[in-house]
Amino acid sequence: MSSLYGENLKITVFGQSHSQAIGVVIDGFPAGVKIDELELQKFMDRRAPGRLYTTPRKEKDEVKFLSGLNENGLTCGAPIMAIIENTNVKSKDYDNIKLCPRPSHSDLVSMLKHGEGADIRGGGQFSGRLTAPICIAGGIAMQVLKGLGVNVGAHIYKIGKAVDDSYSTTSQEIPINLPDFPSLNPESASKMQDELLSAIEDGDSVGAVIECKITGVHVGLGEPMFDGVESRLAKILFGIPAVKGFEIGAGFSVADKKGSENNDQIVLDNENKIVTETNNDGGVNGGITNGMPILFKVAFKPTPSISKPQKSVNLKTMQEEVLEIKGRHDPCVAIRAVPVVEAAAAIAILDMYL
Amino acid sequence: MSSLYGENLKITVFGQSHSQAIGVVIDGFPAGVKIDELELQKFMDRRAPGRLYTTPRKEKDEVKFLSGLNENGLTCGAPIMAIIENTNVKSKDYDNIKLCPRPSHSDLVSMLKHGEGADIRGGGQFSGRLTAPICIAGGIAMQVLKGLGVNVGAHIYKIGKAVDDSYSTTSQEIPINLPDFPSLNPESASKMQDELLSAIEDGDSVGAVIECKITGVHVGLGEPMFDGVESRLAKILFGIPAVKGFEIGAGFSVADKKGSENNDQIVLDNENKIVTETNNDGGVNGGITNGMPILFKVAFKPTPSISKPQKSVNLKTMQEEVLEIKGRHDPCVAIRAVPVVEAAAAIAILDMYL
Amino acid sequence: MSSLYGENLKITVFGQSHSQAIGVVIDGFPAGVKIDELELQKFMDRRAPGRLYTTPRKEKDEVKFLSGLNENGLTCGAPIMAIIENTNVKSKDYDNIKLCPRPSHSDLVSMLKHGEGADIRGGGQFSGRLTAPICIAGGIAMQVLKGLGVNVGAHIYKIGKAVDDSYSTTSQEIPINLPDFPSLNPESASKMQDELLSAIEDGDSVGAVIECKITGVHVGLGEPMFDGVESRLAKILFGIPAVKGFEIGAGFSVADKKGSENNDQIVLDNENKIVTETNNDGGVNGGITNGMPILFKVAFKPTPSISKPQKSVNLKTMQEEVLEIKGRHDPCVAIRAVPVVEAAAAIAILDMYL
Amino acid sequence: MSSLYGENLKITVFGQSHSQAIGVVIDGFPAGVKIDELELQKFMDRRAPGRLYTTPRKEKDEVKFLSGLNENGLTCGAPIMAIIENTNVKSKDYDNIKLCPRPSHSDLVSMLKHGEGADIRGGGQFSGRLTAPICIAGGIAMQVLKGLGVNVGAHIYKIGKAVDDSYSTTSQEIPINLPDFPSLNPESASKMQDELLSAIEDGDSVGAVIECKITGVHVGLGEPMFDGVESRLAKILFGIPAVKGFEIGAGFSVADKKGSENNDQIVLDNENKIVTETNNDGGVNGGITNGMPILFKVAFKPTPSISKPQKSVNLKTMQEEVLEIKGRHDPCVAIRAVPVVEAAAAIAILDMYL
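YS: structure for the whole thing
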């Protein structure tokens, strides 16, 4: 494992789905900061299950700070360590998975890489549950960034054919009050929910794309060649389970564009400030922020746990078998991943500020 | 700048478009390896200009090793340092760019970040020329990987609407003899060339997507959460100028897929070896290789240097101006970037092997 | 703070003297290892207070593993996280220190660096208490090293004028059963204890040198120039509070030696194996292990907390004041630091093995 | 090899004694700085051989910058790469060493670690010659530090029994004009030279201790636990060949001190600024600078190359042999190492400033 991210703000995520606790150590966080624990908990709740179109499992993600704060609740310069205790964990029935790894899960690679040590209960260290510690660190990072005038906001951009293209690419505004279903355009949101309902009915799941915008970033952040903004963002975002793609600005659509369409022409705005007319570069040139909003998209594959019968191989008998996964899972991991993407982006950006 | 990549195989790329030399230091390379300099030079030539649909500039990218080899030409365990001298550099006419930064180039961010120090001659440190040192390191890495049974091959997947989908996603074969135009399907290749010709005629440029396949990788490479295979690949690939997107396996197309379609079902092949029926995960689960070929795509934006008039702002007068960029540039940076993507991937993979 | 050590085995120490818990995250530890928790606890006890010539404070350093183990208690490849809860912490009376920083403590630098956030209760993050997490990680590392035939042993080498030079520099043996007072020669140990008693009586403290030996290390460990064995050892050892010097082999005594005395001549031993006659190089040449025992010494300054009156400056009034530190402290921090030095060395060595 | 040092200012040293060139890449250096190449060359000359009591070998260490500067000679933010060409290298006669490794040299470990690849010509990558690139990077770093009011100065503190204790530990002054023989007290300098002459006459060598002082450093530099000032300094200093010990402030002498003697009492100076009466902590508490001068010492072992006959083992016949090393070597490596220690310290300090 290398559960460490960051150069100046170093976060280490620990825990497994069924370990006693999961959590994060945050090293390099500035001293003297008052963490708003209430706001943090609200942020955590956006990821927690139990909402619309998410798993009905109960997980109260209560954050406990065990170190890093002084007697007045200010960060003291020492590493901040926070845990979420794993309660009501039922590890009884993973024997079947140990024999028959689930398709497109990490069961097989974990068993082959970690041997007898492999902890595949609930997905072990590969569980989506490990995104909660990312939200702890990211939630705190967002509080600091806010003080610097930097805001981070994400929404569901696409599920199936339904696309929410209501984000402006050039404005420095982010819609603050995300609806309960985290997409902005009511019409496309409704179509997305149809996709989800249909997947749930079929015992199936569906993929999605999340779009994220970061505003208020000054010019000059990012250290090319290999520590540019995109390299930093991609490195942390691919740490989120189920992520299969990352693109910035116009992303993969560039293949279909001419330079004359894609180039962001340089102009003056009303206040005589240099801006670009379009934002196909997504706020970054040569790995360095150019002052326009940072805009990127992340692709999440469909939840691999589905009720439909699937082929697998019994590792003991070395025979093919038909596997049926019971339990109720998120029909689309991306729904709960919206705050996770924000958190990851906030960690990456704050790391570059420090 | 942070021109360093790698954990065990550490490469540092140095140079600017018009510095005396560009090059790379490779630290952590195994001792006792004989570098095939002829094969390396052939690999370098695939990136060099002067081929079909590339800039007619002459750059003979001759590699000189100044350290790291012993008296018998074997790597000695010390850092390998190699340079390519910059000859025939004409820096005369960049005064205009200093006043009027080119749209979607790094001129503006560099001038704002580096101030008086900024070296914008020929794009300075942001020039595509800096991909040559990546090819030196990657070319050597590919030689070592070959000895381990690992092969890396890329091709142009898409330009405009033309798509070359001739790569098999599940076979462990890579077409070895790439045609002179680096795409495999003659029909789509011909359409891609039409796009290029049309862009050249219009004084315009065009974007593209490169697809890359890595075969022969054993199960278990990659250290999640943040040093998984995708994080490692993305970090280095976004170091290549003009890259705007990275996706693995089914990538962004997952948004449009059901879990039952997207999951790679686990089966036995003819030799009773565990494989997957499809390869939508692109050879990676949970950041760890699963033994199937690693398959990823990289999006390259259109060359920002175009002849068509564009808007910019004169930094002295703070007035908008119309900019026309002279000279002949690559109509599509991706053509010469095919070996660069291979090189970057090889560095990332070898780094994980060491 | 940068509380992270290691390249492959990455440990992050967290906590303050009076935070709810202190502990460590260990990332990169091999999977499938059974940790002997009983043996670990015994190792922890060697550092715990309450023994001869140590502070009579009660701290039961009970280790709790919250993540990283699977259902069978084997390491699972995920980060290992362990805590020690801080119980019975009395933070009442640090107001005086906040006004008048203690000489040769970290109070002053912490208050100036961390401002209002500074946590100086019990020394905060600078407390010797933070060596307990080092012992958790190091104790586990020693268990793995033992399996590889590598042993680590330390003892008190010097207090005042009393020197215990009973360690052989060339033999691959380490005395296993350290006496209760951690020095080997009864005669010098008795003199050391006289020094301690005299310091206690005077309300004073005394410094010391710890010597450490690592046996069974194969030839070839260490990556010069800057990741040689000494650089790695020094980096972690200077993380232990109160350390003021590190030397390997003949160390500072080389200034007084001729090359002909100091050189370790190369000979064959009884089994025709290449060894050196002496071990002035301390088992390392050019940063790389040479197969002889690694031998190094670490200097610990006298406990800065003493009962004698000392000068300080009142930060509010900006007047000089006379400070008297109450409470009972270790008369010599080195006594309890013997296992800490072993632990730190074990972490550094295992990191190089992985 | 891991020839990389630094977190923000990353330097990578490359080259072997007999490679075509040696040099350094400096990544992360601030943009817009004018390097004074003349002053740098003067600094390099202090390390070059040919002076009093050094080897009469001719090595003109001429620095060539191949990248990192713009057209006006200002640093441009891209990595600075500089080389020194190796001229007049005679590699003829190392066959004997390949058979019979020299005692206390790196020949044996290199041959065992690097196998056929080992480059032992002139000591290969372990040669003292590789300290020249450290001086390039350090010389530049000193120029930047000077602008920040930070100065670095070293001298020979001890050879044999002769000690130069003329450095004040508490004053923020460094003697600027070091005499040709780099020690300050004429009397002890004369005794040191007697030691050197006697070693030369005997075909022997002698060890030494260098003392270094850094003034003008503000309070608060250093990131404990493991990136404190001492950890950073030690890591780079042990990268210098022949270094066997590092101590800060009172160093190993603390073993012989009471807390009441060793503690640096806190007082007000004439300008009502908080200082300490003594400087036994060497300017650092808890890994963090306290505003007093940083003071440390480094032990250099005697040059291992001596003319006197020594025992070694013929690796082919596996018989013991008597080895005589011809050629003229530095009788004491420390003499030329004085600027190297300054350079290494400057790199470490500037890295912490950036």
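YS: worth flagging: Chain B has one domain: 4-353.
IM: good catch. Also The helical segments of chain B are 37-47, 95-99, 107-114, 131-147, 186-201, 229-237, 259-262, 334-353.
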